[in-house]
Amino acid sequence: MTKVEKDKVVEIHYTLRLSDGTVEDSTEGEPPLPYLHGAGNIPPGLERALEGHNAGDTFTVTLQPTDAYGEYDDEMVDAIPRDAFPDETELAEGDEIWLIDEEGNETPGIIERIEEEMLFVDYNHPLAGETVTFDVQVVEVRDATPEELEHGHAHDQYADEWDEDEDDEDWEDDDEELDEEEDDEVK
Question: Whole-prediction pTM value?
Answer without folding.
Answer: 0.74
